[in-house]
Specification:
This protein is an alpha+beta fold. Helices cover 22% and strands 31% of the residues. Strand 2 and strand 3 form a beta hairpin.
Length: 286
């Protein structure tokens, strides 16, 4: 049975029967005009939990492109899904939010039909949300080093190094995860120092190597096939990729924290890609 992974942002049109019509009537106030896109997204996600209707007005009701494959396109695609959400069950805690040009990306601890950790990406045009991508994974227990999928550093620094950090991380993913140039691995890290939030891998670069080696012995290989998007703000960089983990065709969202030109910390969410015959929109995962 194919499992439909729902993003909490699926319910951007929560209370669709009333909120959709209200969104058309909401005019831009001075407060809204001055609000950063990042703030709009955080407010919108929190509204999933609170039921506030005003944040729905941050979405362009005439153009909303959905890339969650379990949801039909546009605001109207939310209705049937909303009906099955138990009242007062949703919880939303956005731990990290970032802005890169017209894109906002977030790292959120959800309870939406069960506990999940998710990354969401929103694209803006003229101050309104017009497109959405996401990746979700059921919340796992802390990893062997005691780190959860969501804890760790949150402070955004080194804004002047954003582009350099994006290039560093893109090169790392391309060299190591796509092309398997393991001889370059050590050059991306400060010795063995590396904080890991993947639920199955311990800290340190040596911990990563040991885990991948053990999986390889079991015939389980991690292979990224293509990088689709790289977004960043300061010392944080998100890479969106697709590839395979074992036999599964997956979407990989990897968030890296860079410190002094080296990768220092990593979070990820891995989601199996729904077979095309079960897609509810034709926009694709990426």
């Amino acid at each position: 049975m194919n499992k439909i992974i729902l993003s909490a942002t699926i319910i951007l049109g929560f209370g669709l029967s009333t909120a959709y019509s209200q969104s058309k009537a909401i005019s831009k106030t001075k407060k809204t005009e001055k609000m950063e896109n990042k703030q709009k997204v955080v407010s919108l996600l929190k509204a999933i939990e609170t039921g506030a209707s005003e944040p729905v007005g941050y979405i362009n009701p005439n153009k909303y492109i959905q890339h969650n494959l379990g949801v039909a396109d546009g605001l109207a695609g939310f209705g049937a899904l909303l009906q099955s959400l138990p009242p007062n069950s949703a919880k939303v805690n956005t731990v990290r939010s970032f802005q890169d040009g017209d894109f906002v990306f977030t790292h959120t601890d959800y309870n939406f039909f069960g506990p999940k950790i998710g990354f969401d990406i929103f694209r803006f045009e003229d101050g309104k949300i017009v497109e959405h991508w996401d990746n979700l994974q059921e919340t796992a227990k802390p990893n062997p080093s005691g780190h959860s999928m969501i804890d760790g550093a949150t402070e955004i620094k080194d804004l002047d190094k954003t582009e350099a950090n994006k290039a560093l991380v893109r090169n790392f993913v391309d060299d190591i995860l796509v092309n398997g140039k393991m001889e370059k691995l050590a050059g991306y890290f400060n010795g063995d120092n590396y904080i890991q939030h993947n639920p199955n891998i311990p800290d340190q670069l040596s911990g990563l190597g040991a885990t991948l080696g053990e999986l390889a012995k079991q015939g389980i290989f991690l292979k990224y096939d293509k990088i689709h998007r790289v977004l960043g703000e300061g010392n944080f960089v998100l890479v969106v990729s697709e590839g395979h983990f074992g036999k599964n065709h997956n979407s990989f969202y990897d968030l890296f924290r860079v410190e002094n030109g080296k990768i220092a910390e990593h979070w990820d969410v891995i989601e199996p890609i729904t077979p095309k015959e079960n897609w509810k929109n034709n926009n694709g995962k990426f």
